[in-house]
Automatic annotation (TrEMBL):
This is Rod shape-determining protein MreD. The lineage of its organism: Bacteria, Pseudomonadati, Bacteroidota, Flavobacteriia, Flavobacteriales. It comes from Aequorivita flava. It is a multi-pass membrane protein. The chain crosses the membrane at residues 6-24, 36-61, 73-94, 114-134, 146-164. The keyword Lyase does not apply. GO terms for cellular component: plasma membrane.
Length: 169
């Protein structure tokens, strides 16, 4: 990773944390639909970056959100899990092109990109809401929260990527 990639990732990390804490945490549709745009940091982390650094940064990202939300570590656990499982998701989303390191997420096939984003977001949300609810008695709430917040987050992430990808071309 070059120095410019490091600076871009630091800026993205800080911007996403503040955007999540100051703006997006105040959006609450229907009582259980919230966008979690900060996952975009893990989604866009360079593919040639160190995987153990990504797990640490994912944990730090989630911990930052947990500190501001006072949520007891659920975001940190979910982000660390998603950062850990990301290579597997990349492999089944992009297939052979990931193995040969020829994937550019912003320029990938839209269906592959959507599969990748949706998988990471839904896994993140399932882990996060499972730890937050932590009861088999509320399984329906867990699934509803995961599905609806996940769909809303996927839409917000895809729209954000479209806006910034058009701007950079």
């Amino acid at each position: 990773m070059s120095n410019s990639d490091i600076l871009i990732n630091i800026g993205r990390f800080v911007l996403l944390v503040f955007l999540q804490v100051l703006v997006l945490n105040n959006i609450n549709l229907g009582g259980y639909i919230n966008p979690y745009l900060y996952i975009l940091f893990i989604v866009l982390y360079p593919l040639d970056g160190d995987k153990s650094v990504l797990i640490f940064l994912g944990f730090l990202l989630g911990l930052s959100i947990d500190i501001f939300e006072d949520s007891g570590g659920v975001h940190a656990a979910a982000c660390a899990f998603v950062a850990y499982i990301r290579p597997v998701v990349l492999k089944y989303s992009f297939g052979v092109s990931y193995e040969y390191n020829s994937v550019k997420i912003k320029k990938a096939d839209p269906m592959e990109r959507l599969t990748y984003i949706a998988s990471l977001v839904l896994m993140h949300h399932f882990v996060m809401f499972s730890l937050e609810i932590f009861s088999f008695n509320h399984t329906l709430l867990l699934l509803k929260s995961t599905l609806f917040s996940g769909l809303f987050t996927i839409i917000v992430i895809v729209c954000t990527m479209i806006i910034f990808n058009k701007k950079s071309q």
